[in-house]
TrEMBL record:
<feature type="domain" description="Alpha/beta hydrolase fold-3">
    <location>
        <begin position="108"/>
        <end position="322"/>
    </location>
</feature>
<protein>
    <submittedName>
        <fullName>Alpha/beta hydrolase</fullName>
    </submittedName>
</protein>
<comment type="similarity">
    <text>Belongs to the 'GDXG' lipolytic enzyme family.</text>
</comment>
<dbReference type="InterPro" id="IPR029058">
    <property type="entry name" value="AB_hydrolase_fold"/>
</dbReference>
<dbReference type="InterPro" id="IPR013094">
    <property type="entry name" value="AB_hydrolase_3"/>
</dbReference>
<dbReference type="Pfam" id="PF07859">
    <property type="entry name" value="Abhydrolase_3"/>
</dbReference>
<dbReference type="InterPro" id="IPR002168">
    <property type="entry name" value="Lipase_GDXG_HIS_AS"/>
</dbReference>
<keyword id="KW-0378">Hydrolase</keyword>
<dbReference type="InterPro" id="IPR050300">
    <property type="entry name" value="GDXG_lipolytic_enzyme"/>
</dbReference>
<dbReference type="GO" id="GO:0016787">
    <property type="term" value="F:hydrolase activity"/>
</dbReference>
Amino acid sequence: MMWFGLIMVALIAAVMVLLRRHHDAGDDHEAPPREQQSEARQEVIERVKGMHTAAEGLHGRARVKALRNYMDSMSDDLEPVSEIRAPGSGPPRGEWVIAPEAEPERRILYIHGGSWVAGSPKSHRAITDRLSQLAHACVFAVDYRLMPENRYLDGVIDCRQAYRWLLENGPDGEATADFLVVAGDSAGGSHALGLLAWIRDQGLQAPTAAIALSPSTELMVTSLGKRANLKSDVMLGPTVKKLARIPSPLLWWGTVLGMRVLPTNPIASPLRGKLHGLPPTLIHVSESEILLENAQRYAEKARAAGSPVELETWPDMVHVWHLFTPLLPEAEEAFEHIGEFLSRVEAGSA
């Protein structure tokens, strides 16, 4: 087995060298001409660029720490309507976000994004605060374990544990949920969609509904260079352009070794799983982002399997534009659509 280990070390080293070269060469964060953008959109794009520059020149743990700090700082100026409450000692880790009119028996499990290496309940309070208000539900934002210090599957396990716990526990202690939604964005959207299939296969009580915002549905990395929207996606585009230049075998094995899961595994690529028997699900995705095509494929496959999945697209929005509420009018519009979707689900018409 020594030869195999040596090959893996060589592959990782090659990937890291290539990534560093591409980083040093620089990549412009391309965006539509400023005259075509509103002031709010311009500010959002600048914030997204800041996410890339925050870790510029850093490597390893220092780079990860800088990215995490920047994402958490996105909520520093937020004045949430909701109460932020810790769940107490013991698992699952996370925080409750409770709007004034939220009912304890109405709950939402929220799984934040951040490429599985960054993000936290704090970084996504703009979203969880709005969800609690519009659904009159107590949102539990799970603080799942992140890479690289943990395995990808550790985060999956944390989300599963949180769902089981929420079925029987609310913000005030043990109590059965009579309304429970699974929601997430980006990488957290992938965890959310994967969780739905696991809940079905385990025979657990199904969630009332699910919401996935700009979700990752497919982890296959061999076709990055063929994906559209590389230029228009100001958040994911710069990173994906670098990855697309790496030879496919190196990228494949780098992904396997880094995430310790095969990209074809439905746990990491929900699109590759069985999509029958899922709850009513709403997917939001921008027409300008890289994840558009795979989100469309997921919705089409799920509907073909008989699952009630709705897909709504927005033009010229950044990845997970919902984070920029109330600054971005389109973010507020998206939350209105989420509220309408949940109302239809409860009325039995979704």
